[in-house]
Amino acid sequence: MGTLLQDIRYGVRMLLKNPGFTAIAVLTLALGIGANTAIFSVLDSVLLRTLPVAHPEQLVLLTDPDSHGSSFGSEGGDRSLLAYSEFQYLRDHNEVFSSIFASDSHLAETPAKFERSSSGAVSAEETIRVRLASGDYFYTLQVKPVIGRMFTPEMDRVRGGAPFAVTSYAFWKQRFNLDPAILGKTVQIHHTSFEIIGVAPPGFFGETAGEAADVWIPVTMQDAIYPGRDLLSLSQGEVNKHIWLQVIARLKPGITQEQAKASINVVFQRMIESNIGSTASAEERQEFLSQRINLQAGARGSSTLQGEYGQPLKVLMALVGFVLLIACANVANLLLARGAARQKEFAVRLAIGAGRRRLIRQLLSESLLLAFAGAAAGILLAQWVETLLLQLVSRASAGHGVIQLNLRPDARVLVFTLSVTVLSATLFGLIPALRLTRVDLSPILKSSAGATTGEAGQRRLPAGRVLVIVQVAISLILLVDAGLFVHSLSKLSEVNLGYQRENLILFRVDGAPGGYKGPANLRFQRELLDKFSNVPGVRAATLSSNGLFSHSESADPILVEGYTPKPGEEMHSRMDHIGPGYFSTVGIPLLMGREIGPQDSGNGPRAAVINQKFAKDYFANTNPLGKKVRDTYPGNPSEMEIVGIVADAKYNSLREQTPARIYAPYFNPMWEHSYAIYEIRTLADPASVSMTLRKIVQQMNSAVPPIEIKTMPGLVDDSLHTDRFVARLAGVFGLLAMVLASIGLYGIMAYTVARRTRDIGIRMALGAQPGGVLWLVLRETLLLVVAGLAVGLPVAFAGTHLLKSMLFGLGLVDPVAIVVSAMSLVVVAALAGFLPARRAMRVDPMVALRYE
Fold first, then answer.
1. Other CB atoms within 10 Å distance of the CB of residue 842
2. What is the pLDDT of residues 609-624, one digit of tens each?
3. What's the rounded Cα separation, in Å, for the pair 343 and 440?
4. What is the pTM of this model?
5. R_g of the chain, CA atoms, integer Å
6. Spatial separation of the C-alpha atoms in residues 89 and 269, rounded to whole Å
7. Which of 71, 373, 600, 716 fits as disulfide partner to 607, beta carbons 3.0 to 4.6 Å?
8. Which residue has the higher pLDDT, 603 or 136?
9. Residue 598: CA atoms inside 13 Å, Cβ hemisphere, count?
10. E-assigned strand segments in 32-82
């Protein structure tokens, strides 16, 4: 410890003696370590961090909203969500869980008012985030209140009989200033007042990563949060109509996850069997019984972010790791150059008996001091970068709304930063330490102060050049990857939707809060459609049940007249209910027959229009017009006659492979709809009609929620959010790598010119022209760049294969990204080498000959 403290004190003095070198080294490391810490913090919050609850390893997910299983319960496979009646059955009949709860799969953002003072004064209306949860929610998660009490199972027994609320600690702090008198105060949501009975502990955000609730409400109060909608009372044959709950359980002691999975699926199959009914055909029964519960570890809770951001964050973590390598190479080069000036010092210390191992330890101590200083600056930088990342991620994309992540450094992040710091110190400190302590004492001790022999310099310089070559190679990899993401984003932006996006607006009108159900809702929506069609500035108006780029889909099993399924083939089709003139309004070309019109309303024979993919799959060699298609979903059999074929179109993603799709009349529906999504084609700027559309809805019924109008270009742009997020960050890391590489290149060439000043002076004294000297230095610079490109290109090619799943419209090799990246590096390298070269061509021969 005594020698360690001595090394630290000596290292601090040496770093303070060279403030310019120290500042550049610390800043370089801060960029590398800070960027790594920031990306890891986001990755940790999204993919790695466990829930802030007791014994999270005992939790299991019965549903996974982030999966690609069946949300509707009609396509078979793993269930991603459950209906309330299904949750009740599993809760009451399982034998493997000590407790189980259900919660709304999405936060409800709703206006509310608060009672804040003892006088009962109510605050102005503001939007809060509400999570509906069953009575065992807090008990299962083993979360205890800071003050008050939590929900109990008794709250699930009576529908509408538990007007209670639990608030988050952050909500309590922000809106009530930690006032303990919050208990007993009320939160008014819509027309219902909820008594606040407790406050959750600090740090607890809920069970879903990225979604922090302000208030928890009992699930039996569902109709108070979603007025006019009944998501709880499901009758026989409708068990899967409202699939909206995520379900999490805690395993009993001694029960493994595999045992629980086998047991709960037996219970789940028994429940399905009891609900399927005796009238279902063998095929319908098989389809229905193919559903299952895919029990998964629940320590990290539920998430809808892992699927969207998991792979991009892993890629960005790898890219930012390369940036750290470049930063380490830069600092190693700085240490090599600085060490050359200290060779006399090392030679003297070795000559008087210092061991080589002792000197290496001293140099590594200085490297650690630099690394820790860089880490301290990097953590400060990471906090700013994390805020920027959260703003990028939190833009409303894919229906997530504002994403809430806890990015405060915890033990895991600090351990990661410490590990990166120590690794960095080892990487950039070991090579210079080994090089600079392997010296020939005699020529160095005979040389003048501050000078080194040409032989020593020649031994040192190759190491610096190798580091520059590594920097250039890694920079090329990062630039090529950034170019691939940018080119992929460009390709996505050029995708043909199958219809015109300009002057097309969309908005949702929910009739349920206004008391409209069944036929009454159809009349309400029809009247609205007529009013919208007559608004000045509206070219055409229609509606649909799912909308475009709304991330809402419907799908059912089907039977097609004249088509014999292949062995093992599962016949499914996406479905949408549309209003009259839908295709002409949206702009989807009609290829054959007619579109849905006013004559298709009512309860008569149901018409249907199919898309090209449907026609290709089931009518490859026949005319589909007049053929029958039957929806075979149990409890909802419906038959349709095909009257038209339309072109394929993009519905929810620019990347999607167009699925088979059936369009049925909205005003002769196969199942009930409480809302409609309107598609309005305007004559000019959509903003000119937006105010009128809002007024019409409010005049029809003030209880109907205000409409939120979105433009089609805006929706498409939102769908590219993740691609844009990755492209931007990859581009930033690529540019940062190129800047660091150019600094390293400049440093090595500047040092080379300084070391060869006498040699250059002799050349010029013998008649060498300044242009020749300029080219001499630039040639060495370009040779280093070419060597780096030769090393980096094969690795960049291999990296393209790993990124293939995240790219769109690109082959295994993208010449554009490679050529642009290589040329950018050559240009930047030429600029970095030009300044030392220019200095070399201006060397005075007489001064150079007296250099040593």
1. 12
2. 999 999 999 998 899 9
3. 10
4. 0.80
5. 34
6. 11
7. 600
8. 136
9. 4
10. 59-61, 77-78
